Amino acid sequence: MKPIQDLATFVSSRNALHQVVEHVVAKARYVNDGKIGLTAFAEGIATPPLSDGRRVQVIGNTLLVGGVATVLTTIAEAARAAGVEPGLPTELYPAATPLEPDAPLHIDGASAIAIGEWYAFTSLVLNAFAAEIADALPSPLILWPEHFDQAFYTEDADESFRANYGASPGDAGHPDPYLYVGPWGTVPGNEFWNAPHFNGAVLSHSSLVAAADSASAALQFLRTGRSLLISH
Description:
It is a single chain. The chain is of the alpha+beta class. It is built from five helices and ten strands. Strand 4 (62-65) and strand 5 (68-71) form a beta hairpin. Helix 1 (7-33) packs across helix 3 (109-132) and helix 3 (109-132) crosses helix 5 (214-231).
């Protein structure tokens, strides 16, 4: 895992990709089957296979639709390539990003690749952890376009054990990408629960870069959160 060289460029690229994911990729799935959940796929973000067998996928600063690549320049061009009208359906929820079809998308290639690699890495970690806690009845791992994060939740019989476990590429409250544990209830008193902008704990991308083994550090973070929840 590599450090982020320019956080400001990373953030602006992340925001532009978030627009593409909400207004084009999620829209393509919604038109197909009425759902919006996405997935990390081949170091990018994609719909599941649609009814015609295609995926609509973002890798770096490129949109892939049925194997045809289109460089991301505007939302309007991306939507045309995907064969949809741009815009997240407003009956679902208010979009988290502005719909500006003709505004240029400023997406730095290196930042976009780093976002894809983050999703690929955290997908492996989160799925491995979900397998460890199968008795907690973890939900499928889904990449949600409105929050632009991927997460699963547990359905423990004891509701005080339930939590969301996920990974975000960063947001206004924490610009650096991060893993998180988000308990559904009040967290027990412990310095582990360090999230600055929600009820829970975060482990930053920069901390994982500094770790001797990023995957092991990520899993240990998730295990610690789970252990604190079920032992209080």
